[in-house]
Amino acid sequence: MRLIDQPYILTKEQIHFYHENKFIKLKNVFDEETLAYYGQLIKDKVKELNTQHIPIEERDTYSKAFLQIFNLWRESEDVKEFIFGKRLAGIATQLMGTEGVRMYHDQALFKEPGGGFTPWHADQYYWPLANDNTITAWIPLQAVPLEMGPLEFSAKSHTLQDGRNLKISDDSEQVIGQKLRLGDFEKVVKPFDLGEVSFHSGWVFHRAGANTTDQMRAVMTVIYMDKNMKLNAPENDNQQLDWDTWCPGAKIGEVIDTEINPVIFDA
What fold is seen in the domain 3-247? Predict the structure, then answer.
């Protein structure tokens, strides 16, 4: 069995930590060989599909933060092997305590040398989903020192309602950052070792620093949702766009069982 499909069994303490904080970092999810092989496939595909050619200094804050390419699993059968791996999906299922998970979408997030910070935000602002049984795997394809802009979490911030209505922007950085300071939420930012992967829920606030190195920060992400997730009526224009793009044909109040939202793991 390939490593990408081998089980990664979590402890009760790890699952408890996730439920308390709504994020967790796990070491040794992948080995160097696996990341080198699939990482190169992902990097090649991102390079092929990237259409962002505006110089960094001419972009807005959002565009400075990263290059992003969506649903690579539909562009390459080899990359699909990695994204549909049972190891990641099994971890997501254990952390959420669901009967399994299905695909919402994947997303390559490459922060270029000199790339700017990613503002504070909560992912679920963008998602027309009926509940928060969602989780994102953040998979660095190399070690990520602080200078490269690793993901930063605000522990337990899923309990904060203020700021949930803000998209990623300068405003979200300022407003959410202030709310988190006032609420005395712990900020957790540490380097990622090679093979370390983080998982975070849809409503936990997070950000990332700038990439001040001369190397690309290559990260692959996979967004999972409960296999029984139902579509919610969109609450903003971005959720309407996500419905049209990532859940095409799904109906409000029904399980999101479309061609591009397959079940990846059954518990």
Answer: Jelly Rolls (2.60.120)
d(CA 139, CA 145): 14
Taking CA atoms, 186 is separated from 168, 206, 249, in Å, by: 21, 11, 40
Question: Domain segments of the chain: what residues?
Answer: 3-247
The DSSP result for 220-253, as a single string, is EEEEEEETT-BBPPPSSHHHHHHHHHHSTT--BT
What's the N-to-C CA distance of the chain in angstroms? 18
CA–CA gap between residue 228 and residue 1 (Å, rounded): 28
Statement: residue 66 has pLDDT above 90: no
Would you call 119 helix, strand, or coil by DSSP?
strand
For residue 107, give Cα distances in angstroms to 25, 147, 174.
19, 22, 25
Beta-strand runs (E) in the chain? 23-26, 67-70, 100-111, 118-121, 134-140, 151-154, 187-189, 197-201, 206-208, 217-226, 263-266
Residue 149 exposure: Cα atoms within 13 Å on the Cβ side: 27
| Averaged pLDDT, 51-57 | 78
Task: Kindly list the distances between the CA atom of residue 137 and the CA atoms of 29, 54, 87, 191, in Å, as whole numbers in the listed order.
Answer: 11, 28, 11, 16
pLDDT band with cut points at 50, 70 and 90 for residue 64: low
